[in-house]
Specification:
The radius of gyration is 27 Å and the shape is globular. The strands form two sheets. Strands 2-3-4-1-5 form a five-stranded antiparallel β-sheet. Strands 6-7 form a two-stranded antiparallel sheet. The protein has three domains: 2-84, no CATH class; 87-168 and 215-262, no CATH class; 290-432, no CATH class. It is α+β, with helices and mostly antiparallel strands and 433 residues long. It is 43% helix and 11% strand. α1 (2-9) crosses α4 (72-84) and α9 (189-198) crosses α13.
Length: 433
C-alpha cells in the first residue's frame, strides 16, 4: 500500500485524466482488495478515489491548497484506519436561525450552544472539506454568531467501501422506488429526536412576538459531518442562508457605523431561567416515555413536522399530534371497541374532547380542542372559513405540547394497554363535558 501511495503522491498536478486507470492506483486498489476482508471482490475504486482526495492527493490540489496534502506515511495510516473501521461518528450541525441569547444545554448525545469559529472549523474538519471543495470556503466567523444544535451518533459500517461511497450503485432496483415512507423525517433521526425534546419546552409562552413566530428558533438545514473518509462530504453551507439584518450604531464621536447582525426573535426573560430544566435527567424521562405503549403512535413525528412546516400545514400537524396521542381506531369503527362500551353513542369528536379534558383535568382544554377541530374540518371539507388567527395558531401549538407533556408524565404509571389508558381518560373527562 505504501509503495503504491508513494507513486501516487509523486504525480504532479493536474494529474491523469482518469485516476482510476492509472497503474499506481490499480496497484493500490489490488493491495486494498487483498489486505482487507471487507474491501469487496474487485476492491474499492470510487471509494478509494474519494479517500485519496480526503487525504490530500497532491495532484488533485491547486497551487494555493498544495499545503493541505498529508505526508504519504500519514495518509497510509489514515487510509488503513478507514478501511479497517467498523463504525463511524456522524456529527449533525443544525443552526438555530432567529434564536436570541439562549442558555447552553446538554442532553443525550446533543448540545445546544454557541460555537466559536475555531470550534466550528474543527467540527467540520476544514482541511478535509477544503481538499474536496477548493474554491469554496466555510465561513466559520459568520456562523459563530449563531446558536447551534449539535448531535453526535455512532453508526456501524457494515457495507463494503464502494457501497458507502456510491450507495446508488448498490440499490435494489426491484424495490418500489416511488414509494412513500410515511414517517420518514426531513432530517436525520438523531437530530429530530433532539428537536422533539426541545419542542417540549413552552416556546409559545416565552415568545414576545407570537404574531411573527411562536418558535424560539428555526432550523433551515442540517449539515452532517461523517468521519468515514470514504464518504464524500457535502459542500460547505453558506451563512447567507440564515437571517441577517443591518444595524446602525453611534460610534460615540458623532458618527455612525453599520454592522450586519443575525435577526433574533426575542423571548421573555423566563426562558433563560426555565430552559435549563431541559437537561440530561429530563431527557432520560422522555426517552423512557417513548418506549411506552402510549407512544406507539407517531406523536413525535407530527410534533416535529408542525415545527418544520409552514402555514396551514403547521396548524394541521399540531391537531394531528393530538389525534395521534389520544385517538383510537375504535372511535370511528365500533367493531374495534372493547366490550362493554361505557360511552355508547358518543361521537368520535366528543370522545377526543373527553380524553383531552381527562388528561389535562379541565373542560376548557376540551373546548379548545373542539374549536381547533372545527377550523381543521372547515379547511379539509372545503367549507367557508376565515383566516386562522394568531390566537388559534398558538393555541394549537400549546395544546399539542401540553397533551404530549401530560402523556409523558402518565407513562410513569404502568399501564397494560393504550386502549385501556385512553378509556380511563374518557371515564375521567366525560363528566366534565
Amino acid at each position: 500500500m505504501l509503495t503504491a501511495l508513494t507513486d501516487l503522491w509523486r504525480l504532479r498536478p493536474p494529474g491523469p485524466d482518469n485516476i482510476l486507470v492509472h497503474p499506481a492506483f490499480e496497484r493500490l486498489r489490488e493491495a486494498c482488495r487483498e489486505g482487507y476482508p471487507n474491501a469487496g471482490k474487485k476492491g474499492p475504486a470510487f471509494a478509494l478515489s474519494t479517500a485519496l482526495r480526503a487525504l490530500g492527493l497532491p495532484c488533485h490540489l491547486q497551487k494555493d491548497t498544495a499545503h493541505l496534502a498529508l505526508p504519504v506515511e500519514e495518509a497510509a495510516k489514515d487510509l488503513d484506519a478507514g478501511l479497517r473501521a467498523t463504525q463511524a461518528k456522524r456529527i449533525h450541525l443544525a443552526p438555530l436561525d432567529l434564536a436570541a441569547d439562549l442558555p447552553p444545554l446538554a442532553f443525550g448525545s446533543a448540545e445546544m450552544r454557541r460555537l466559536t469559529a475555531d470550534e466550528l472549523r474543527v467540527l467540520v474538519d476544514v482541511p478535509r472539506l477544503k481538499r474536496h471543495y477548493q474554491r469554496q470556503d466555510f465561513d466559520a466567523e459568520r456562523f459563530s454568531e449563531f446558536h447551534w444544535l449539535i448531535v453526535e451518533e455512532i453508526v456501524p459500517l457494515d457495507q463494503e467501501p464502494e457501497a458507502r461511497a456510491v450507495p446508488v450503485l448498490f440499490m435494489d432496483l426491484s424495490q418500489d422506488l416511488g414509494r412513500i415512507e410515511p414517517h420518514k423525517g426531513r432530517f436525520p433521526v438523531a437530530l429530530e429526536e433532539a428537536l422533539f425534546f426541545l419542542l417540549l419546552a413552552p416556546w409559545e409562552r416565552w415568545s414576545t412576538m407570537a404574531e411573527v413566530d411562536w418558535r424560539g428558533f428555526r432550523v433551515p438545514w442540517v449539515y452532517t459531518v461523517d468521519s468515514d473518509i470514504i464518504v464524500r462530504p457535502n459542500p460547505p453551507p453558506s451563512p447567507d442562508t440564515l437571517s441577517w439584518e443591518d444595524r446602525i450604531y453611534d460610534d460615540g464621536y458623532g458618527g455612525t457605523y453599520e454592522e450586519e447582525r443575525p435577526v433574533e426573535l426575542r423571548l421573555e426573560d423566563a426562558a433563560a431561567t426555565e430552559l435549563p430544566v431541559w437537561d440530561q435527567s429530563r431527557w432520560m424521562i422522555v426517552e423512557q416515555a417513548k418506549k411506552s405503549v402510549l407512544f406507539e403512535t407517531p406523536i413525535a413525528h407530527f410534533l416535529v413536522r408542525a415545527f418544520l412546516a409552514e402555514g396551514v400545514d403547521e396548524f394541521l400537524a399540531h391537531i394531528t399530534t393530538i389525534e395521534a396521542a389520544l385517538g383510537l381506531r375504535a372511535d370511528h369503527q365500533k367493531s374495534f371497541r372493547v366490550a362493554p362500551d361505557r360511552h355508547k353513542g358518543m361521537r368520535a369528536t366528543n370522545r377526543m374532547r373527553g380524553r383531552v379534558a381527562g388528561l389535562l383535568g379541565d373542560r376548557r382544554y376540551a373546548d379548545q380542542y373542539e374549536r381547533l377541530f372545527n377550523v381543521r374540518s372547515a379547511f379539509l371539507h372545503g367549507r367557508a372559513m376565515t383566516d386562522i388567527s394568531t390566537e388559534e395558531r398558538v393555541m394549537a401549538r400549546s395544546l399539542a405540547r401540553e397533551v404530549v407533556e401530560a402523556l409523558i408524565l402518565a407513562t410513569q404509571t404502568p399501564t397494560p394497554s393504550r386502549e385501556e389508558f385512553l378509556d380511563g381518560l374518557l371515564d375521567k373527562g366525560a363528566p366534565l363535558l
